[in-house]
Amino acid sequence: MSRLEAFGNQLVQFHIYLRELLEDLRDQVEAGEPVSVGGLDLRAHCLSFCQAVTSHHTGEDDGAFAVLAEHYPELRPVLAELTRDHHLVAGALRRIEMLDQLEPAAQEQELATLAALLETHFTYEERKLLDAFNGLSGLTPPDHHRLTLPFRHTT
């Protein structure tokens, strides 16, 4: 499998990574434990998670979606809908950044809302774009860079 053929799989892997980060955060908040992931307290963890999601969505909006639109013009309505989703998620992320200022029940509710939004978004994106991403071939280096940037992460 070529690097480009695996691109859709990279998207899925990054979504799994984000789901796991959010699930860890939710589990700790629901258990009433002091939130600490990799030594980060609740506020730092929320900011780190929010940054990862924001970078991912910005990379899609500014790069990957443009490449897909050029190669698959029929996907433009789907890409526009996903971009609108990114704005909804951004609003939820702004509320998550202030999670440490909320009561525990409100923390759980905000995290549940974000989890539902992201799950719906990720599932739709994977269903609609996975084959298109994996079907891209023969991209020039500038397009290839625009395409791969938003899906990098370190574990």
Task: Describe the secondary-structure layout.
Blueprint (H helix, E strand, L loop, with lengths): L6 H24 L11 H30 L4 H21 L7 H32 L5 H8 L7
Helix pairs in contact: 1-2, 1-4, 2-3, 2-5, 3-4
Explain the overall architecture.
The chain is an all-alpha fold and 155 residues long. 74% of the residues lie in helices and 0% in strands. It contains five helices and no strands. It has helices spanning 7-30, 42-71, 76-96, 104-135, 141-148. The chain is elongated. The protein starts with 6 loop residues before the first helix and ends in a 7-residue tail after the last helix. The model has no long low-confidence stretch (mean pLDDT 79). It comes from Kribbella koreensis.
